[in-house]
Amino acid sequence: MIFCIGNGESRKNFDLERLRPFGKIYGCNGLYRDFTPDVLVAMDYNICHEIYRSGYAFKHPVYLKQWEKNPHTLYEKLFYPETVKKFIGDVDVETHTDEHEWPGEKKRFFVCWANNADLMKEFREKNKDWHEDDFKLHFGEDQEGYKITWTKKKDKVMGLGKYKDEKTNAGVLIALMAADVDKKIYLVGYDYHSKSKQVNNIYKGSKGYVGPKAKAIDPKNWIKHTRTLLNKYDSDHEFIHVGEPIPEIEKMERRYWTNISYEEFDERIKNNKV
């Protein structure tokens, strides 16, 4: 079996280490900060750069979506006036470049993400009703400009291969990857809904995530992606969701989607009946 770990707040006090004796563990995004899964997947550019810069990718395998390596010969072109204006706007390039390099490591390849400051400012102006915490993930002022990370010759970054064009989120993607290699999949920390008006994420308020007062995310896309996942597999698969039931998924009446509480999950672990 495989345990897929989402980053919903329901798993906050659950000890993930208890799962290791029973099967592989797949996780996504900020999970690496406090736990090392067997498979880690990240999709947003912020967290991809963070994971690589932390050194995690030199010790553990990781799948990064936004990670196209460019040869060093293209580096100077980033700073041509016409390139700067096109990709990061009419700003001071020096103060709008977040660059990471490795001392003693030859600069061969780099990964770059660019956010146009002018367009981002325009977006913020059009959405003045948003709380500043809503902007922090992709539209905050600290996200403007270039984010450049030089790569090392030996790392354990892998491309997503056949999954690279999947239009889904990281949580559903790891479930999809898991279901391709095993038939019994546990989903832990897949909350979908928020119990308050604020976003439901265990890492909210930390770097690379929205602020703690960001409004709750409409789960309709997550639900849509989960339905697509379930429609892809036959009844020989078993998806076990841990936590409160998801009404929109329960309506599908799939025999191979079941819901259990954390209390029941705990009992299964204690009795070795996972």
Count of extended strands: 12
Structural class: alpha/beta
Radius of gyration: 20 Å
Residue fraction in strands: 15-25%
Give your account of this protein's structure:
By secondary structure, the protein is α/β, with parallel strands linked by helices. It folds into 2 domains: 2-67 and 157-270, no CATH class; 70-150, no CATH class. 24% of the residues lie in helices and 19% in strands. The chain is built from 8 helices and 12 strands. It has helices at 45-54, 81-87, 117-126, 132-135, 170-179, 220-231, 247-250, 262-270; strands at residues 2-5, 24-28, 39-42, 62-64, 70-71, 97-100, 109-115, 145-150, 157-158, 184-188, 238-242, 257-260. The strands form 2 sheets. Strands 9-4-3-2-1-10-11-12 form an 8-stranded parallel β-sheet. Strands 5-7-8-6 form a 4-stranded mixed β-sheet. Helix 7 links the parallel strand 11 (238-242) and strand 12 (257-260). The longest helix is centred in the C-terminal third of the chain and has 12 residues, at 220-231. It is globular, with a radius of gyration of 20 Å. The N and C termini lie close together (9 Å). The mean pLDDT is 92.
Short description:
The protein has helices spanning 45-54, 81-87, 117-126, 132-135, 170-179, 220-231, 247-250, 262-270; strands at 2-5, 24-28, 39-42, 62-64, 70-71, 97-100, 109-115, 145-150, 157-158, 184-188, 238-242, 257-260. It is α/β, with parallel strands linked by helices and 274 residues long.
